[in-house]
Amino acid sequence: MSSQAEAPQAPPGTPDADPLRWWGLTVIAIAQLMIVLDATIVNIALPTAQADLHISVANRQWVITAYTLAFGGLLLLGGRIGDLFGRKRVFIIGLLGFAVASALGGAAQGQEMLFAARALQGALGAILAPAALSLLTTTFTEPSERGKAFGIYGAIAGGGAAVGLVLGGLLTEFLNWRWCLFVNSPIAIVAALGATRTLRDNLPQAARVRLDFIGVVLGCGGLLAIVYGCTEAETHGWSSPRVLGLLCGGGLLLVLFALFEGRVRNPLLPQHIVRDRNRGGAALTVALAVISLFGTFLFLTYYLQTIKGYSPVIAGVSFLPMTAGIVFTSTQVSSRLLTRIPARMLIVPGLLLVAVGMFMLVFLRAGSSYAAVVLPSEILIGLGMGLVFMPSMSVATSGVRPQDAGVASAVVNTAQQVGGSIGTALLNTIAASAATAYITAHATSPHVSRGLQVTGTVHGYNVASATAACIMLAAAILAAILINHHPDRYEAAARSRREAEAQSAA
C-alpha cells in the first residue's frame, strides 16, 4: 500500500488536503538530507582533495568556510526570497542551482574553482533550506499530520550529519573525493523533477511581501561577520584583533538591524517572529543544542580516527547508533506526543538526556573501548536530540502568517547554522587550551612523549565535553522557562491558517 493511501486524511470540515502531500514530503526530505549531508560529507574528503589540488594548509579551511559563510550569512535573505517569489519556485531553482554548483565543485581543477563552487553551494542552500521548511509548514497544517511530517524532518536534521560522515568515507575510500560533490547533482535533479509534480505553493501572489534591501545589508552583513569571526577563531584565537573586530562589527550591524526593522513597513525579519516567547525560545534552544552537538561530532571524529586509529569509513559507521536514536525518538516518540503534551515536556527531558550523554565523555580515556563509553554516550545523545529537534522546529514555525513562513523557517535555520559555527570554534578552542595546559603541567622534559600528547589531547576532549554538557543544561533551563506551547495551540494555528488562506483567496 502506498504512503498516500496510508496517510491520515484531513478532518471533516477542513479544505481538501493535497493528495500528493506525502510524496511532496519525500521531495522535501531528500532536499533537506542533501543540505545536511553537504555540511559534513566534504570533511572526510578534505585531506585527499587538498593533496590532489595542491591546496595549502593555510587555505584548506576555505573548502569548509566558503560554504559556511554563504549559507549562514544569507539564510535570512533566502527565507524572504521564498516569501517574495514563491517557495515552490525558489525551492526548484535552489535544487537545480545546487546540482550545478556541486558538479562544478566535483570538476574543480584548482583551489579557486573549488572555493567558488562551495560558496555557490552555500548561497543556494541558504534559499533552499528555508523554502523546504516553509513548504513543510504550509503543506502540513493539521496537527496529526504535522507531527508525522516534522518527525521525519527532525530525524533528518539531527541525524543527517552522521550519515554524511559515513557516505563521505565510503565515496572517498572506494571512488574519489570528487564524488562527495558529484553525488549531489543527480539527487538534486530528481528532487527538482519531483517537486514540479508534488508540491504546491499555498501563498497567493497578493500576500507576498517586498524585499527590505537595507535589512538585507545589515542583517546578512552582521551574520556573515559573526560566522566568519567564529571560523577565524579556530586558527587565530578568540582574543585576536581580527576575530574581535569581526564579532563586534557583526554584533553592531545586528543591533542596527534590529532598530531599523521596527521602523519599516515590510521588514526582512518581522519582530513579532522573534519576540514570541515560543518561537524565540525554540530558536535559542536549537542554537545552544547545535553548539554542543557540532563540538561533540568534531571531538569524537578526531578521537576515533587519531586516537583509536579507525578508518574514515569505520569512524563514520560508529556514529550510526546516534543517528538511529535520533530517527527513533523523532518519528516514534516526538511525532506521536507533540499534539498531546506541551512541547517543553519533550524538549527539556531531551536536552537533559543529551547533557548526560555528553557528560559521559568526560570519562573517556585513550584506552577506553568504544562499547564501554562512546556507544552509550551516542545512544543517549541520539535519543535526546530526537526529542529536541523535531518539537523545536515545529514550535519555531507554528502560528506564523502565510507570508512570513519563509523568514520564520530561516530564523531556525540561522540559529542552527550560527550555533554550529560557534560550537565548532568555541569547543575546539577550549579543547586545545586544556590539552596544552595539561601537557605543560605534566611534561618532565622539553621533549614531549607520544603518550603524553595523546593523554593531553583526550583530556582536552574531556574538558570540552563537560562544557558541552553544561551548555545543554543551560538550554534545558531556558527551554523550561521560555517555551510554553500547548497542544491546543496547534489546532488554533491550523484554524488561523485556514482562515488566512480563505481571506487571501477571496
Helix percent reads: over 70%
Separate helix tally: 19
In the predicted model, the low-confidence regions spanning at least 5 consecutive residues are 1-16
What is the CA-CA span between the terminal residues?
Answer: 38 Å
- The CATH architecture classification of the largest domain is Up-down Bundle
Mean pLDDT reading: 79
What is the CA-atom radius of gyration, in angstroms? 22 Å
CATH topology of the largest domain: the name is Growth Hormone, Chain: A
CATH superfamily of the largest domain: MFS general substrate transporter like domains
Quick one: CATH class of the largest domain? Answer: Mainly Alpha
Number of E-type strands: 0
How many structural domains? Answer: 2
**Global morphology:** globular
Structural class: mainly alpha
Write the H/E string, N to C.
Answer: HHHHHHHHHHHHHHHHHHH
User: Quick one: biggest sheet?
Assistant: none
Describe this structure in a few short sentences.
The protein has 506 residues and is mostly helical. It is built from 19 helices and no strands.
